[in-house]
Amino acid sequence: MADLAFQPTMIREDKTARELFEAVKANPARARFGFGEKLAVVNVDFQQAYTRPDLFPKTAYVTHPDQIGFVNRISQLARQKDMPVIWSHVAYKPDSGDAGVWGTRTDTPDSLQNIRYDSERHQFDPRCEIDEARDLVFTKRMPSAFFETPLASYLVWHKVDTVLVTGGSTSGCVRATAVDSLSHGYRTIVAEECVADKHESYHYANLTDLQLKYADVVSAQEVMDWLASR
Description:
Layout: H1 17-26, E1 39-44, H2 48-51, H3 67-80, E2 85-90, E3 136-140, H4 151-157, E4 162-168, H5 170-183, E5 187-196, H6 200-214, E6 216-218, H7 220-229
Parallel strand pairs: 1-2, 1-4, 2-3, 4-5, 5-6
Helix pairs in contact: 1-6, 3-7, 5-6
Pfam families: Isochorismatase
Keywords: Hydrolase
Organism: Glycocaulis albus
């Protein structure tokens, strides 16, 4: 008969999500996946709905002030090393009929399913340096950049073994993409300065979980140093 006196509980600590992440980062509990031989940069949803709090304060978020600058520099280095750069963005048709069950949660002017293809919210942030001739750009409809998109086959064709995920939000589309990346068999990297979320607690709680389970959370400088050394 089971010992009814034993009642497991969740660990509780009087630390912020950021403090917990810093502790995990300083004392990693898992071996790193590390970089392989060929990396792809997957830049998730750098569109104005999420990057321009001056235009869309209800939906946009900024964590590191130079997030897009880091992403541009990493993407440029990747191109110089003949490694693919990918940009996703999210949008739906006028009746939101392709938003699926996700589109049933809210119906307000600033809600997800009201990002239209021809809207300001859908457009990429003009600070993003996208090479239209070389980069892969596609629209997605669900959190993961892998779900019902050309990403998986594109990575196979380019013989990629490592995926770097940037963008937002850390707790949403970045996390979903990182988990799918690992599930597809890729070494998965998240550059800390290159991802963002609406609230510090969501951001750092998910960075902690990614670091413990699904990805290596590293500095943008480490990624740039690795690319420069190839």
